[in-house]
Amino acid sequence: MQIILTQDVKSLGKKGDLVNVSDGYARNFILPKKLGLEATPKNLNDLKLQKAAEEKRQKEILDEAKALAKEIESITMNMYIKAGEGGRTFGSISTKEIAGTLKEQHGFDIDKKKLQLPEPIKTIGTHTVAVKLHPQVTAELKVKVDEQ
Question: Which stretches make up the Large ribosomal subunit protein bL9 C-terminal domain (predicted)?
Answer without folding.
Answer: 64-146
